[in-house]
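Quick one: structure for this chain?
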Amino acid sequence: MAIAIAILSLPFATFLFLSLTVISSRRNRKKSVGFFHPYTNDGGGGERVLWCAVRAVQQENPGLECAVFSGDDASPESLSIRARDRFGVELLRAPKVIRLFKRKWIDEKTYPRFTMIGQSLGSVYLTWEALCKYNPEFYFDTSGYAFTYPLARLFGCKVICYTHYPTISSDMIARVTGHSSMYNNDPLIAKSVWLSRCKVVYYSIFSWLYGLVGSCAHLAMVNSSWTGSHIEKLWKIPSRTRRVYPPCDTSSLQMLPLERPADPPIFISVAQFRPEKAHGLQLEAFALALERLSSESESGIIKKTPKLQFVGSCRNKDDENRLQKLKERSTELHLDDFVEFHSNVLYRDLVKLLGGAIAGLHSMVDEHFGISVVEYMAAGAIPIAHNSAGPRMDIVLEEDGQQTGFLANTVEEYAHAIIKVLTMSDTARLRIASSARNRAQRFSEQRFDRDIKDAIRPLFVGA
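Got it. Here's what it folds into:
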């Protein structure tokens, strides 16, 4: 009897403990903004958004303390220096750092199967750690962990998010239904009708849950038309959804001269070494372009053989292995003399590399926005981007009736665009580069600062 009572009382005791923890945390809530960004060393566009958002909040509300929830062993000073050196973002003051020790629960390697739901539930556990340590008045998610929003509201926070891409989308479900194999759809599942149907059911249930938790946001900012259309369909809070294009460094890059030496002509590819960035496709296309340019029918059209520079960051050992395999593939394609690899470069070095390129490659399917594409355009490098999502809907569009770049899908199409850039006259290249630079101004850091301040101002009234 005593054992039965003890078993029955355990859930009640757990509930009581959790409730008291939440109540205590709500009473000690800080007049501050807590930025939930567990990986503050990923080096990508998401981290740039974090630092620009911190700076915008500091400028708009100087009296509010800014804290960053991070799983990295970092100090306020080191993060402030990183924001400046890596992204050129000067913070008004160093943010407070709340160290998280349970970040492994959002690591994809922790969940070999059912990764999405595993990471989503893991993010709730990580947020519990975060909010128990430090409960801000405003919970600002800049990493896309929507399942944490109900918990943040339970702790009494106003929830703000900047969503780079939906965790689940109708496009993902369509690929599974169509048995399309990609980095996020295992070939074994793609080949099996039964497994594909099971995954569609899993995705459908997850999609419903994602919509439920996402609707808890007081303010949802999205980075592109593509992301916005999916979020509005899933979360169903259009009145609380705002499109705020991500901050791209267009001002300093626009200082680079449009005319540049092409000896040799350089193509650049700026992206983290992640599987979805499809660097392999770029290598294949570049090899095909060189093959065609060296053929008898096209000999003499270009004076110098072009070079391709890969520039990106490695988040972990898997990225480093991916970079090594890319180098090996370059050797297999006999491209060692024509391809360079630059990893984890400083911002000033990235600017220098962009200033020497005549064109930039981008090949991610359904890239939610495409900051690197805007950086190419601002720097004067003609973009050759994937014909989907952000690049197609927002970025590589005509400016005042003038072409701003090229869109491609296949290796053949990319190779054709590469050859097109190499064989066009200097006048034609400069005309496209100039139009692209003008369009890039729509996505400047100044535009981001203005739009994000306009979006958050109603929530911050009285804070």
